[in-house]
Amino acid sequence: MGLIVQKFGGTSVANTERLQNVARIITETYRQGNQVVAVLSAQGDTTDDLIEKAREVNPRASKREMDMLLSTGEQISCALCAMAIEALGFPVVSLTGWQAGFQTNSNYSSAKIKTVHTERIQAELDRNHSIVIVTGFQGLNKYDDITTLGRGGSDTSAVALAAALKADLCQIYTDVEGVYTADPRHVKGARKLEEITFDEMLELASQGAQVLHNRSVELAKKYRVNLEVLSSFANKPGTKVKEVVKRMEKTQISGVAKDKNVARLALVGVEDKPGIAYRVFSLLGKEDINVDIILQSIGRDDTKDISFTVKRDDAEKAADLLNEYKESIGFDHIDVDKEVVKVSIVGAGMVDDAGVAAKMFGALYDADVNIQMISTSEIKVSVLLDENDANAAVQAIHDKFFGE
Amino acid sequence: MGLIVQKFGGTSVANTERLQNVARIITETYRQGNQVVAVLSAQGDTTDDLIEKAREVNPRASKREMDMLLSTGEQISCALCAMAIEALGFPVVSLTGWQAGFQTNSNYSSAKIKTVHTERIQAELDRNHSIVIVTGFQGLNKYDDITTLGRGGSDTSAVALAAALKADLCQIYTDVEGVYTADPRHVKGARKLEEITFDEMLELASQGAQVLHNRSVELAKKYRVNLEVLSSFANKPGTKVKEVVKRMEKTQISGVAKDKNVARLALVGVEDKPGIAYRVFSLLGKEDINVDIILQSIGRDDTKDISFTVKRDDAEKAADLLNEYKESIGFDHIDVDKEVVKVSIVGAGMVDDAGVAAKMFGALYDADVNIQMISTSEIKVSVLLDENDANAAVQAIHDKFFGE
């Protein structure tokens, strides 16, 4: 018994049948004596359909009007979900982002939540004993204009709301049953984790395990919101995401992740003088191009190479930008390789165990996979590989750490 | 040069091409030096599609949630229209009903506008020199919940806004070119009127000339808002609707209207005692069944008949209701005739000209059309006819009054 925030993604509410299923999950939680606030995404492809409509009218529409348009998607799914709950005979009210008190900054299309004024929701919960359905992904800025949080923002809405309401639990319902040691669709023997730490989840999320949006995990960590990732299609416990995890058995890592949205750029023949790296990466930073792994070769003769990875969609833009400044930076040419993939292992215990990275490299050696770049942090090791080696590499690493 | 409110209905914004056409009309008005506020309906069948979705989920959904759902329709069309205007290079902002300051009562699905707080719109017009696009059909009640005004509410939104902003003109763009002396699709020689009075428009609107929503005309009359009805598809002047009209030539009537949404009920063999009519019509009133023409026969022996018309959709409900109270009212049986039609002539000058009604009846006699019931007011004469006679009757009356 407590206050539970539940979040349902687009696939979970994609059609009438699924909405009715979500209504059952919500009302079952309510029936057990809990107060329930559910945060919903737009149904299935609604957001994409709206974007397509906008593109037809004006491919360069302002973000302010895009947000005005896109915010209707969640409003529709929330109203329909409330109706499905009414049909089951429970008290319910749906609220838009602004009705639910989501105050954001004015960065249209990727706004940040500043605060959540929970008075309305509290009143609905306490006075009306209602189930409250809230639109994810959106809020209101100081000009009283509608903003959206960007893709994946509904997870963040749910966690922010759980934090503001001091909820006992924030359940993220999705189309997978939890967080796995590797992608169960591609890796044999992948196992669902009972628990995982915020830090591990952060690394897994940013390494391409698309279960939870990274912003939401950061927020959950900051406000110590107990998260649970579980499936709206299977009536089973999912994976708990917490500050500290008690592991029954000592596992060195909690998962293997693969990120295909990556490209490697190499500046070849860079003059060996100070300040070049600064020039290159501040240029990219100004254009909002995030750089991940950076590797600088030891200089041969009087030149060296600088390699780095960016998101695959940013590769052309980054190359064009740097070529524009070729003279002033001073390099021979740029190599762009989009047929690469990043594979990472993540584990909070890794920092105490020097052998983990070596064990990973050993698995790759045994599988005859060549490593192009390496990057490490306290709780993860990432390697850049040829795309064709990706599946074999993940399977080999997973077998090494999780095999019987 | 002035402040012009323009309203565009669902067919005018049904697709990308039409939205772009509407954007051209709005920006042309702005380019001529006017401040422009445009009120839009939802695109084409959007509202019906949303209603269908709701019905699938819950056929008895609450009106509160229906309004939450349906209000997205105008938000979508307004955002898209703003994008189309951006594409033409003009400053523009779209506003929802609540952003535009529409305060309504809490009668979900058929809310009444209480006031319009125009500060935001005025600021957008005066400070930002923006074209303002506003969602029709919706507002906010005192609980901060979204309400809708019911079908045809966008006309009312536009007129209320024109009144609140003290606009110089309120143009209602629709798919017909103005108000005609009769339905131009069915009546040969039907002519577009240059001008018409509010009262005449009211009678024509309620008599089935579906050009303007009646509530909007009443509101325009009350606040003396200059209206113009015109087509978004033809670049021509429409019909002006005003308090007083100067007629170049003296026409006795301004139009002939036909209303097929009507049924005649007859209580046969009613006991000839006081209070029966009161019983019957208060029963119907309690169930929100509007009665239009009433005719009570002179009693033969000790019984009489009471005939009256209701909307065709209400006929069964009315008959069932009265049959339930058959004993206490005291009648023999009920006759229901749904194959009737009401034909009306409307004209502000009629009251001064006793011959108008006679001229109408003469036209019907010449056309061999039998009159079932007659009802008159200061500015109209309505007759109830067999449905099969409707077109011939309207043509005959129109020829009589407007023929060369």
3D architecture notes:
2 copies of one chain form a homodimer. Chain A is α/β, with parallel strands linked by helices and 404 residues long. Chain A has a domain at 3-175: Acetylglutamate kinase-like (Carbamate kinase). The first copy, chain A, contains 12 helices and 20 strands. Chain A has an 8-stranded mixed beta sheet, sandwiched between helices. The first copy, chain A, has a 4-stranded antiparallel beta sheet with strand order 13-18-20-19, with helices on both faces. Chain A has a 4-stranded antiparallel beta sheet with strand order 15-16-14-17, covered by helices on one side. In chain A, strand 7 (138-140) and strand 8 (146-148) form a beta hairpin. In chain A, helix 11 crosses helix 12 (390-402). The model of chain A has no long low-confidence stretch (mean pLDDT 91). The A-B interface holds A 16, 19-20, 50, 53-54, 56-58, 60-62, 64-66, 68-69, 71-72, 75-76, 78-80, 82-84, 86-87, 93-94, 96, 99, 120, 144-146 and B 16, 19-20, 50, 53-54, 56-58, 60-62, 64-66, 68-69, 71-72, 75-76, 78-80, 82-84, 86-87, 93-94, 96, 99, 120, 144-146.
Itemize the secondary structure elements and their pairings.
The structure is a homodimer of 404-residue chains.
Chain A (H helix, E strand, L loop, with lengths): L2 E6 L7 H16 L3 E6 L5 H12 L5 H25 L4 E4 L6 E3 L8 E4 L2 H8 L4 E5 L2 E3 L5 E3 L4 H12 L4 E6 L20 E3 H9 L7 H10 L3 E5 L7 E4 L12 E5 L3 E9 L4 H11 L4 E6 L6 E8 L4 H10 L1 H4 L3 E5 L2 E7 L8 H12 L6 E5 L2 E7 L3 H13 L2
Parallel strand pairs in A: 1-2, 1-9, 2-6, 3-6, 9-11, 10-12
Antiparallel strand pairs in A: 4-5, 7-8, 11-12, 13-18, 14-16, 14-17, 15-16, 18-20, 19-20
Helix pairs in contact in A: 1-3, 2-3, 5-7, 6-7, 11-12
